[in-house]
């Protein structure tokens, strides 16, 4: 748990050290640099504390066991990883002990640790050393089990970070699907040749174009690249041209700042700015400058390895346009430019077929012409659900689509094969507000890759005071990750999925210094099963000597204040967490074919999603999650259907579409559902109120009719359990004949599982316990126990009746 002032009992790092942490399949090979560091550690061991001496002794023990394993031709990559992290964090602990004032300053930047910053700084070095001992103990136990024949594990495939192939829907290395991992914003400024930060343990994805975090005039690919005379800044351009063509990587277009010369020519250029987009995307000069930037950088990096994982066209874009939203503190959309206003009026002309009387009747206004239309932006939240709210919110989305379409078009003029994605925040989809200008479906369709920065939390966010429902049921908050990933994969099932800033380990409003490693394993496994091909975790900020990177020294005067507090209690202080991230990714890569088979499982039930209802309703996504949650524990992934999915994808990819609490849909959305029925599809409709209104709340005269399909319509209002049962019945014949019964002592399930045929007459089953309680599980085929169940990760046999602890992960092979 977090060490907060509000805790009933004051916790300390000493207490955290008592929490035993063990994990399966650990390992590691020392580099020459680490061997030198090891020698230095041993020479000074007599002057070091007892924890360091114990750790050094265990390193020797593990090395000896690794030699035995190598003699038997047993892969010891996992153990090599343990030793690498052990040595690094022993070095870090010594730096932290010698620089307690710096460490205390870092704790001061994050509210939960501020009051006791000195105590935490005092305790951190031994905390790190004891966590090193824990990962060494687990590594010793695991290699002993391998040597004794108790477990049989798959070798870890070696990733060649310089030879990655981007396939249609997977990344490939050595003719195998591969999942890449790294840290975002990693020890800023370190060259690719620095093996202390670019290696198989921390990852070797090169972060082109994000060498400095945006304070103002940074070295990212940004607005400052173009000078007033239209030429390019030679020094900034070298940040692009000097990128070595050796490692797979990505390029990031940073939109934060804006040069003074642009503001002199276009005083309105900063109006309509947002948190990470520091200019008006409707401004002609801004668009001209960014067109030049995109074309130039795209041309210079065409075919380079640094662009294999795509050009990230924006960092966390959003344009919240409602009063009293937290983004107003950062002057987001507090005023809009004349260009935005003019474009909105033109949008309204098209929307209303140039008939001002229709708009006036809808808005309850008396404008003489579209040129005289006025709307107060940001909007009052009380107007949500009214026609003006809908029109602005839809326009706000359409203008951002236009902006990103422009950028991508300019890039493809000079680099037609360039892959693109946008670092979309999944909470813009899963949470209720819709004034943010982001149409997640449209932008995911537009780009050639899926992009996001999904987060999870193990405790309630610091800015949330009241208990949340998930806390009583689950071990961590998985709603944003799972629901958004199932949506993204439904929209673009054949695209590579890049999480370029994974917030599974920490976030602005959540941190946990004694994070359990089984959570780390569970959440990375979940994200990968749900589509993630590569992730860059937030964040690696240690320089090789153990000191915080340069950005985190000094006055920490960042535009985004969250960065200043990001170091305290992060992965940079947790050897067990850093080690487990690499361990779980190595394990996932060892079974990558099985993971791909499971995650490409058919989605038989599609939950209908309407952006129209999401814009109009105050709690539409809260209601949608209730239905999504109810469908998430029955052995298959939940899918989504939208108007575009129904129109553009093969309807044979699913069995039924379920409509739940979706009152507002456009006529085109309604027609798409009717066309689906006419083509022989099945729809489950929860009530007569769903689909009953258009985007402006006007009653729809038409009702769905079955046509050539099957319409299951409920009178009144069917609850989620009734609808779930109807959906399961409608898909019974297309699902695998495998059942998993769960008893965790509560009325709700916690084990998310999937099952696919293995091509050998048996099945692959993946089970993740997301619940707070240990689950007693009963796994059957056709009502009978399988002939044999094998744990693929250990080679051990498993009974058909077994238990799975919270955060437990199992990958099983069932033989009938």
Task: Provide key terms for this protein.
816 residues, alpha/beta, Rossmann fold, Immunoglobulin-like, 5-stranded parallel sheet, Glycoside hydrolase family 42, Class_I_gatase-like, signal, Glyco_hydro_42
Q: Are there runs of 5+ residues with pLDDT below 50, and where?
A: 1-46, 210-219
Number of helices: 24
Largest pleated sheet: 5 strands, parallel
Count of strand segments: 23
Task: Round the mean pLDDT to the nearest integer and report it.
Answer: 91
Helical content, roughly?
25-40%
Shape, principal axes of CA atoms: globular
Any idea what the radius of gyration is? 27 Å
Query: Structural class per helix/strand content?
Result: alpha/beta
Q: How are the strands ordered across the major sheet? A: 13-12-14-15-16
Q: How far is the first residue's CA from the last residue's CA?
A: 43 Å
Strand % is 5-15%
Helices, strands, pairings?
Blueprint lengths: L12 H5 L14 H12 L6 H22 L5 H22 L1 H9 L2 H4 L2 H31 L17 E2 L4 E3 L2 E3 L1 E4 L22 E3 L25 H8 L7 E4 L7 H6 L18 H17 L10 E5 L22 H14 L4 H8 L23 H28 L5 E4 L3 H4 L9 H7 L3 E3 L26 H13 L5 E6 L14 H13 L4 E4 L37 H16 L1 H8 L5 E4 L2 H6 L3 H11 L8 E3 L1 H6 L7 E4 L7 H12 L3 E4 L24 E4 L6 H11 L7 E6 L7 E7 L5 E7 L5 E7 L6 E4 L9 E4 L4 E7 L1
Parallel strand pairs: 4-11, 5-6, 6-7, 7-8, 9-10, 10-11, 12-13, 12-14, 14-15, 15-16
Antiparallel strand pairs: 1-2, 2-3, 17-20, 18-19, 19-23, 20-22, 21-23
Helix pairs in contact: 2-4, 3-4, 3-7, 4-7, 4-18, 5-7, 10-13, 17-18
GO molecular function: hydrolase activity
InterPro entries: Class_I_gatase-like, GH, Glyco_hydro_42
Keywords: Hydrolase, Signal
